[in-house]
Structures
1.
Amino acid sequence: MTEPSATREHQTGDRQAFPALVDRHYQSVYRLAYHYAGNHQDAGDICQQTFLIALERIGSLRDRERFEGWVLVIASNLLRRRIRHAVHGRRWLRKGRRDIGRQADPAGAAASCGDAGRNERAQAVRTALQKMPEKMRLAAILVLMEGRPQKDVAGILNCSPATICRCVEAAKDLLRADLREFID
Amino acid sequence: MTKSNDKHDQHRDIDEILQEVYANTQPPDSWPALRERIGAAVSDRRRRARSEHRQIAFWRRAALAMAACLMVSIGLLLHRQAPRHSGDSPDAAGTAGGFALLTQAQTDRLVQAFAQVRGLFADQHPWLMIDSAGASQMGLTLPQGPGHREEGLVVLRLAVEETGREDGRRYADLVVFPRQEVVCTLQTAAGSTIELRLVPVLGKDGRVDIDFVARLDGQTREGRVTQVGRDAFSSLAQLRLGASSFNLGATARPIPLSGARIAL
């Protein structure tokens, strides 16, 4: 089932269509939330909440081909709203930064040297992302990590492609500085 | 050799590092476990939405019942007030050209009441009949065809006359939406009951046609009367009961919906 047809079928009352949409997009939503929040617990919560909101509001989605972009807009709005929530936001960020230090390879203990190196790089990337302002961080995750076109990301973050281009360049500079030990 | 491979593994392009980190990101338990949690939350939300829907349906039905009570109350109130306020006898209605059972002010109030309560009935529309024999009837039916909400209301005056008897006329005022089917009964002066099923149809030029089926003691008359009179009764049907003959007539007046609507 294609994405537009799954969206249309859900909108016309087919209950099996929404799980198909979740199957297709939950990993990208989770990855966005994880790299933005910096911890698995919040990433899981945001991911779940994103699809609950999508379930409630899918009837209002006019352009069925843009379900993925629409879900990412919901997720990024949730992430930004959560971080802006004054007191909780500060705690959440601190928690995220603390968790980065604790998190190991989710698949289990890193046995080989390759895994150890991968974990180090992952940790360094998460730490570097957490230092960035929110829009730059989202742009970095969506463009540099997910490989989405800057024009699409501008639509998701509701700003101009030029702004995204500037954010991405600045994010790359920051990442190069923080990850210089891993770069050729 | 191993050391050299490690070195190569560690030093790479920044895009490569970011994409590798992104690709290796996964929940602490597993992707299927996360998918299961999301699926459970979605199912739970759906269950709750269904339960809320049932509650909304319950309250809607309760509101419907309350609105029905309100309609009956309005009907009874108007019926009690009608003779006092109009000052006309029902028998004079046909010649006076006015509405003796419902005065203009009472009709306006009723129309306003309809405008206010109709939102409670969803797709169903209410109708109300008050007759000169001292009874009122009301009901809810689905209009036949679109556009009925914008067309306003139709006030029909029905008259049942026993041929050859001057005092044998009975009247009923019926407030109904266009294209709405009404099933009601009319009492003759002799006490017989005419079962009536009618649908008023409002034309673009403001004329009213009536589709009807009238039944008295096993005889049935049905048909359509076009351009029902505003001020003079148009004959709908002749019905016989033994030696007596009854003439069923009607006048019709379209009224645009007016008055404030209650947002529901």
2.
Amino acid sequence: MAAVIETKGLSKVYGDVTALDSVSLSVEKGTLFGLLGPNGSGKTTMIKVLTGQIRPTGGFATVLGLDAEKEGIRVREKVGIIPEQESPPSFLTAMEYLEFVGAVRKIPDIGERAEKWFELLEFGDKKDVLCKDLSRGTRQKLMFAQAFIHEPVLALIDEPLINLDPVMQDVVKEFLSDYVRKGNTIFVSTHILEVAEEICSRFAILHKGKLLHAGSVADVTAGGGHLPGFFLSLVRKGGHA
Amino acid sequence: MPDLFSCLMKEEWRMHSTMFGSISFALFPVMIFGIVFMGSFLLPLLSVAFPAGDLVFLAHASFLLLGFMVGGFGLLGNEMMNRRFGQASLLVYSSRSLPLSERFIFTNFVVKDIVYYFFLWVLPFGGGYIAASPFLGVPLSRALLLLLTLSLSFLLGLCVVFLLSSLYVRSKAACLLIVIFLGIAGGVYTIWSGTNPTLLFPPYLLYSAFSWMMFLGTTIAVVTMFLASVVLFSPEGTGLSRTYRRRLGRLARVLSFLPESPIVAKDFLDLSRSGIGIGQALFSFVLPLVVIWFFLSLLRSSFPPNGLVVIFSLTAGIIASTIYTWVTEFDSFGPYSCLPVAVSTLIAGKMTTFLFLQVLPAVFIGTVAGISAGPEMIAPAIVLCLSISIYAAAVMAFLCGLSPSVLVYDVRVLLTYLVLDGVALVLFAAVSFASSLYAFLSVFLLFPAYLLFRAAGARWDARDPAGI
């Protein structure tokens, strides 16, 4: 299968802090790939580098065949992104924000598409409320809608279930699994390991910016093991290394 | 109160120092001190063209203006602060998590602003002059008095803005009525007495002829305005779910001839729905310029014919350039980072909105020039004001990208800004003094402005954007 994300020796240093330390990774088309790691392990930095929001200090990354560093705008045209902190513009209504996204992404039938998302995520009653007045959960739904509204072949999403109630988490998990079944790819960063085990087919573990492991979820669970246990043993070992 | 106050002070310091380094920020008051100290030695030369009293007058007007500016920025709401500084949990918005009332926090916040900016701006300025006074033969008591009266000017400006903005939140109509009433009262007094009302500005009077009674009266006025602003303070509403009519799509279609029409349309909605548009226009543009006009008009005799309008147009141009900070205050790059938008595109969008909003200074300066110097000065004044404004905004965009109100405290940025703007101001003041027709030459500033704007895009695209 073709790789939609490929990194070689990818590094990012902020002053004295090494957020990514020579990470080499490959994500194949049609996978729901989980990037796991404790807080501060470099997951969010990885997504930012992959989507051209920030530049790597070493190595390189290609996303959908594009150089993430030099062609960041083209990468962001093609992919969908949910950033770590939900941040729709304060003084647009929820509907206007999706219209704004549609205008920037040049989506012709944005109204119809937006209505589908309001229905799926059950927040149609909030479409004319300013984003600043929305609850955290509703903002997260809105950020989810903007990431998928142009039906990207690849979505990079950072903690997508955070702030969502259990019912909505279920809807989102279902959607993600369906989306991948249609041949798309999802790169999800999370530290909710149970969710990763439930929905991801492949995963990688980052710790202190280093890649500790990359492999298939099925390999871990085959012998009755679980991802949380595997993760904890690896991170604790890595932490003492 | 002391605990919260000291935490607010630390927070303000860290907010600034983490952006461009503690040393660079700590050098800011040192730089002010140095500039004033060295500048003081030019006073004997300057006094040939300007009477010393006029310079003192200008210094008081500047500190009144500084008070307006500091007060205006300090009162930006929670949403503004979050968008500017990321998901910042500023102490001033902590009443929901701490057992402290919003009024108590606001009181501490105002006191913090007074103390912090006193040490950042006022003391270094006064200190520079005090340090130079023995070399200039100025009695130390006069130098100390200047520090006192400049401090009072700053405090008056700050407390006026806090009071008016407290009123503004409670009743926009009442606030507007008071501003109109004060404007009419000033006009009536001018016509009736034939005297410029700014001559009654208490700190200036105090410096000219100190009396304990006037000092007491001025102090009582400052304290009364401070207390009134605290009593009238009403926290911004949260948790409201008011619905709004959809306007973005229609607005973007109207502006579709622009390459960044959705961004410009969004800016207009931001300005209108946040109330910042009207608030800034009033507190950061019209009010300071009306005050400056009254102050400058006292110096009319020091200028050549039409020189007052020229100087006022240049001043209005610099203040109009700060409209770029209004449109960048709403957001950092963060909300756009998930979209195919480059920093340069965002700067271009903000600059386009800025250009639209130049209608406000154009109308304002045209009206003032028409009334004070006759119709023949309207066009030169507008051209001079807008050229300077656009040039200064381009300098700001080049030096600060999308964070002009933050990076201004970086010593290197501020020095470069002052030099680049200063050269243009001196040059076009000189040629326009020679003939008001030469004011039209200022359109040539649009070339460097364009080049700076292009360079700003390339410069800020090449850096990791702030706010993500």
